[in-house]
Write a structure and sequence with these properties.
By secondary structure, the protein is of the alpha+beta class. The protein has two domains: about 140 residues, Fructose-1,6-Bisphosphatase, subunit A, domain 1 (Fructose-1,6-Bisphosphatase, Chain A, domain 1, 2-Layer Sandwich); about 110 residues, D-Maltodextrin-Binding Protein, domain 2, CATH 3.40.190. The protein is about 35% helix and about 25% strand. The chain contains eight helices and 15 strands. The chain has an eight-stranded mixed beta sheet with strand order 4-3-5-6-7-8-9-10, sandwiched between helices. Strands 12-11-13-15-14 form a five-stranded mixed beta sheet, with helices on both faces. The protein has a two-stranded antiparallel sheet with strand order 1-2. Helix 5 packs antiparallel against helix 8 and helix 6 runs parallel beside helix 7. It is globular and about 50 Å long.
Length: about 270
């Protein structure tokens, strides 16, 4: 079984590498045209659609089915079959604005359980991946930076509060204030997959995610857990299907972010 999961990781890495080469070249030109989807914060480009199609083409074998950000989930996968969950550009806004923080995310799931994951940064070439044998960074075992002595020294990464939650719950800004005053740094990267992978490395000590989609987190949350970190959703069921999460780097814990998380779940 481990060998089979490793094969899935290898397949996903190959597909992501091919796509990453093209995406890096497109990013370097600076000629990216975007349109909006649900609102002016939610952007899409022709490259999102092209990369998703390219990845799907490379992974279309053995009766696999696909769940992509751009094409959706065409059908529920038959029991025991492989479902590839794809985010062609996680961080499209950064890609459009020339900010070099975005990634390609690919997860393999069987019966709603993620069994392999790959997140590739086209700009730096960092390749995060995991299967049943463990977690890897560019094919070397993925290890985390040492844990800071106190959580007030943590680097917290979050896109909370986004515009959507501020519209329905303006008091979310007060919770954000608590985070800013407690932690050493609070950063906003706007690429959920990379943020969670940074937690796997211990670059981010904590990641707080709100209103996420399965393709944002399926691969990265699995990589984090295989690296020894924790991914908390507060709800039952497959973790990548939950809308909110707290991701802890290996060896980290913090009561404040968990209290903020409990409150925002009701917003």
């Amino acid at each position: 079984m481990v060998g089979g999961m490793s094969d899935l990781r290898t397949q996903a890495l190959y597909a992501a590498r091919v796509a990453a080469t093209q995406l890096a070249e497109a990013f370097a030109t600076g000629e990216v045209v975007a349109t909006t989807k649900t609102n002016r914060h939610d952007l899409v480009t022709a490259w999102d659609q092209h990369i998703e199609g390219l990845v799907t083409q490379h992974l279309a074998r053995d009766g696999a089915v696909f769940w992509g950000e751009e094409t959706g989930r065409a059908t529920a996968p038959p029991p025991g079959s492989i479902e590839w969950i794809i985010d062609p550009i996680d961080g499209t806004s950064n890609f459009v604005h020339g900010y070099p923080v975005f990634s390609i995310s690919i997860a393999a799931a069987i019966d709603d359980e993620v069994v392999a994951g790959v997140v590739v940064d086209p700009v730096t070439g960092a390749e995060f991946s995991a299967d049943a044998s463990g977690a890897y960074l560019n094919d070397a075992p993925l290890t985390a930076r040492p844990t800071p002595p106190h959580d007030t020294q943590y680097n917290l990464v979050t896109s909370f509060p986004a515009a959507e939650i501020l519209h329905r719950a303006p008091e979310a800004s007060q919770l954000f204030g608590q985070l800013v005053t407690h932690y050493s740094t609070v950063r906003r990267l706007v690429s959920g997959a990379l943020e969670i992978c940074y937690a796997a490395r211990g670059i981010a000590d904590v990641v707080l995610g709100v209103d996420t989609k399965p393709w944002d987190v399926a691969a990265a949350s699995y990589i984090l857990r295989q690296a020894g970190g924790r991914y908390h959703t507060g709800v039952a069921g497959p973790s990548h299907l939950a809308p909110h999460y707290v991701a802890f780097a290996p060896g980290r814990e913090s009561q404040l972010v968990m209290e903020v998380f409990r409150q925002l779940q009701h917003m």
